Amino acid sequence: MDGELYNQIILETLIPESLPGVSLFMKHGTNYTLYKGPDLPFTERDKQRLTNGQVEYLFVFSSEISNYNLYVESNLSELLENEDFSLGKRQEILCQASVSYVQEIFDAPAMNIKANLDRCKSLIKHILSDHFSPHQLMSTLGSLVSHNSYTYVHSVQVSSYMTALYKLRNTEDEILMDVGIGGLFHDYGKIYVPQMILDKPDKLTCSEFEQIKGHPNLGHDALDQLGILNPIALDIVRNHHEKLCGSGYPDGLTEISSYAKIASIADVYSALTTNRSYRQALTKDVALDIMSDQMKGSFDTYYLSMFSAMLN
Asked: 174 exposed, middle or buried (CB, 10 Å; 0-12, 13-18, 19+)?
């Protein structure tokens, strides 16, 4: 199909004798060749043939990625519990499913969030699973970052870090879910910021930075109007850029909730340790040193110490 865009998917997410409901393509150089139409089941023979050919990834139309996401989500528990897959492969499946779905949420009309909140909660439950450590998930997520996917990967990273850190002090399921949802949506307001500003490799002008600084309020207000997120999640969305020294935004607060304290740590650490258009990713130790020394006074020392210990 001329002009059609494609999304890469993991071969192992396709379960034999099931119907993925999307067109499956193989890539040869820069060309995409149809492997199987949307109405045909993916068989054990298909999987064996592709595996023998050392194929790890297939491709689907970007216009059909929502159908594929639903297919993976409906089979995610089975995929993540399949001990025939390596732990690394299961991590990759979970991370790709999470990032793909967050992208779908951010790119869709706001009302879709209200209709699909249960899907978000299901992803959070998998992220909270004892099968995966935060460090393992972050390593896998890092490999998924591209120029166009940073916001989506960053959202899953922040949610994962936040839930793991908060779980160390509180295992109450509902609160952990609210923290995870808040982490997923913390940057939702960036959909209202021009993409050229978000992707700018050079230093932002004062005007451009003012637009960036508006995203916590924009995200909070849009999600609040939907009436689906509780105060904990909304607090994370609004206050994840606040700093204890008062230099944060949007309100320059010096007193913030424990949820916002954790969010600010997870947000900055994820940003520092991820490749961006304007700089290379920093190592874990360098990032933590910057947060402890150069940004001293910005973060709650108790939570920052816990976070550092959690990563070691």
From this structure: exposed
